[in-house]
Design brief:
With 527 residues, this protein is mainly α. Among the domains are: 220-289, no CATH class; 291-391, Alpha Horseshoe (Serine Threonine Protein Phosphatase 5, Tetratricopeptide repeat); 396-521, no CATH class. It is built from 27 helices and 6 strands. It has a 6-stranded mixed β-sheet, covered by helices on one side. A hairpin with a 2-residue loop joins strand 5 and strand 6. It starts with 7 loop residues before the first helix and ends in a 6-residue tail after the last strand.
């Protein structure tokens, strides 16, 4: 009870003063730790309980498995479950599967899933969600198809997991197919699903479909409005976001999420004055106290304007402790404006606050490399290795006639790679004649300059674009999705490609949407 009211220390004192503790009291206290995010403390309590000879029951196991965050602890928990013959309980089976997936062992989670004789809807939904969270959208969608073939009807929770998987791929064809499935099903939580579909269309690059869903919603809540505003911002349509924000204010009071959406939209569109006005109105007009997310948006806004010293001063005057997102926004601005001094200040805090995020190391390393400070760049990469932080494998996908094709750097897997590389060579020569100069600073390998250029040419973004030009030559636009931040050289090259081909090229990366047209990008070269 105390934990649910946010009074964890009180619940802890009550538990410690108990003369006798039953399995119910132990389970409740472990659950309190879980609810308050004290996962390690919850596991320590569970271990104490076992050491005192108390046999775990279903409730204590469910709470304890949810506290597990490391693989070795997951294996230990699995042994406890097996030793106490709780592995036949369906809820415990699902919890064990999710535990391994959460600890990065999606293979073990799938092995458990395949071994379950009776799979209920929760089991299917959990495995689909695990794949989506592990950035394995194709596996999630394949499993969803298997579920449907076995005549298991999805519920709203399952469909939300499938929507998440589909949004990773950014497949408009799949989005429309999934939307049709949702429309055919009579489901509760329709507002939640409509909002998720709205967000899906945004992430698939279709503002038109997203707006249709928004306009046809029977009812809109604050999440629906905020999602639509956020979508406009992702695509760089700041004015449209502000117009919708004004409409919303006349009907419903914006909350902290809405203000993150509108401030982000102002930042992406470079609307400095409008962003400041929205930020000032939070407390003044709506009584919304700014959080670290709002401050991060403002740092990003100042960074876009090149006001880096003002951004640092803004951070230093924050009434709350700056979190990783705030320093990350400053570091991103330093990359654009090549300010290594402030980048080092931001990185010092960032690599302590967010030490497990590989993107932070890569960004700082790229800043050093772009300024010719290769020794410092190597130092950051080595620090990353020493901390056992692994860089995500970058990939780029493109949808051709309803089928997804995925490329990685230097790819040779596609049967048409010889043609792709041949056309890529011609394209690179064409944009060179227009003024494109390869930025070899993005290649840290100790090789000759010509080899570095070839390594840049084989980046996954360029391979996907060329494949799109080959297969979609008759169409006016090409859409690709990158799972990481698009690299600076690929961003520059894509501007030139849009110019020489006359095509609109839409790139969704981990930060935003980039609409390339006639040699320019909607992001204004700030991302």
């Amino acid at each position: 009870m105390y934990a649910k009211c946010g009074l964890f220390p009180v619940s802890e004192r009550v538990f410690d003063k108990m003369r006798q503790r039953s399995i119910v009291s132990w389970s409740a206290m472990i659950g309190a730790c879980l609810q308050c995010g004290f996962h390690e403390q919850g596991l320590l309590l569970f271990t104490r309980m076992l050491d005192q000879g108390i046999k775990p029951n279903r409730a204590s196991i469910l709470n304890a498995t949810a506290c597990v965050r490391r693989e070795n602890a997951a294996h230990q928990m699995h042994r406890v479950i097996m030793d106490n013959v709780l592995d036949n309980d369906q809820s415990v089976q699902n919890a064990t599967m999710l535990m391994f997936a959460r600890c990065g062992r999606i293979d073990l989670a799938r092995s458990l899933f395949d071994g379950f004789t009776n799979k209920d809807l929760v089991c299917w939904a959990s495995m689909i969600d695990a794949y989506a969270r592990a950035d394995l959208p194709l596996e999630a969608l394949l499993l969803f198809n298997q579920m449907r073939l076995q005549c298991v009807l999805p519920d709203s929770i399952t469909l939300l997991a499938v929507i998440q998987a589909c949004s990773i791929l950014a497949s408009l064809h799949l989005a429309r197919t999934l939307h049709a499935v949702i429309i055919r099903c009579f489901l509760e939580c329709q507002l939640v699903l409509d909002t998720a579909v709205l967000d899906l269309y945004m992430k698939c690059g279709s503002l038109t479909y997203a707006r249709k869903v928004f306009d046809n919603m029977k009812g809109r809540n604050i999440i629906s409005w905020s999602t639509m505003i956020s979508g406009y911002g992702m695509h760089g349509h700041g004015k449209e976001a502000l117009h919708l924000f004004d409409q919303m204010k006349a009907l419903i009071k914006p909350d902290h999420v809405t203000f993150v959406s509108i401030l982000s939209a102002c930042s992406h569109a470079g609307l400095i004055n409008e962003g400041w006005e929205c930020f000032d109105s939070m407390v003044r007009d709506f009584g919304v106290t700014p959080t670290s997310e709002h401050y991060a948006c403002m740092v990003d806004l100042l960074g876009r304007a090149g006001q880096l010293n003002q951004a640092l001063e803004f951070i230093e005057k924050m009434p709350v402790r700056p979190e990783a997102g705030v320093w990350g926004a400053l570091l991103g601005a330093c990359r654009i404006h090549s300010n290594v001094e402030l980048a080092e200040i931001a990185a010092k805090s960032l690599l302590n606050l967010d030490a497990e995020n590989p993107g932070r190391y890569v960004l700082l390393s790229n800043i050093y490399a772009s300024l010719g400070k290769r020794r410092e760049a190597y130092r950051i990469r080595n620090l990353m290795k020493s901390r056992d932080v692994k860089k995500k494998v970058g990939w780029t996908s493109i949808e051709i006639k309803g089928k997804m094709y995925t490329f990685v750097a230097g790819d040779r897997a596609n049967p048409e790679m010889d043609l792709i590389y041949s056309e890529l060579g011609k394209l690179m020569e064409g944009i060179r004649q227009e003024g494109y100069i390869p930025d070899v600073s993005f290649v840290l390998h100790d090789v000759e300059g010509e080899t570095k250029e070839m390594m840049l040419y084989a980046h996954s973004e360029k391979l996907a674009i060329v494949f799109g030009l080959i297969k979609l030559g008759h169409e006016s636009s090409i859409r690709i999705t990158k799972n990481l931040r698009v690299c600076g050289d690929c961003h520059t090259a894509t501007k030139f490609i849009s110019k020489v081909t006359g095509k609109e090229i839409v790139v969704r990366d981990s930060q935003r949407f980039h609409h390339f047209m006639n040699g320019t990008c909607s992001c204004g070269d700030y991302w």
